[in-house]
Design a protein that fits this description.
The protein has 3 helices and 9 strands, in the order E-E-E-H-E-E-H-E-E-E-E-H. It is of the alpha+beta class and 137 residues long. Helix 1 runs antiparallel to helix 3. The termini are far apart.
């Protein structure tokens, strides 16, 4: 398990980025143009963001049902990572243009999407650019 102190730094170590559009999954691996474009946009979006306490917890069955609608991005890692005492293998985000903050839903092979989340406040930004890029891919 890799232990990191800063949540915003973990994305650079992702092995794949999964996009869910209305429940249809598309994956991009490290080195692919789409992966590079998404990660670049993501990093600009979260620059100067603030990690805050999450508003709630994720329930696996509810999250899986919600992923069938809308636009989601998921960062997949090669093994477990721990940040702030919570571990994960993937981080899932519901992408909505107007959101200026969002939960990062942790996934573990032992419990799925059940458990506490992280929360990022984008500080005077929103997800519009990321949303547009993901819709075009």
């Amino acid at each position: 398990m890799v232990i990191m102190e800063n949540l915003c730094e973990v994305f650079e170590s992702s092995e794949a980025i999964n996009i869910y559009k209305e429940g249809v999954k598309t994956s991009y691996s490290v080195g692919e143009k789409e992966y590079i474009d998404i990660l670049s946009c993501w990093n600009k979006m979260i620059e100067n963001s603030r990690e805050m306490p999450a508003f709630g917890v994720s329930l696996n069955h509810y999250t899986l049902a919600e992923m069938k609608n809308g636009l989601w991005v998921e960062f997949e890692f090669d093994g477990k990572i721990e940040v702030n005492g919570m571990d994960f293998e993937k981080l899932l985000i519901d992408v909505r243009k107007e959101h200026s903050g969002f939960n990062l839903i942790r996934y573990n092979s032992r419990s799925g999407y059940d458990g506490r989340c992280y929360y990022l406040d984008l500080v005077d930004k929103n997800m519009a650019v990321l949303y547009d890029i993901l819709q075009k891919i």
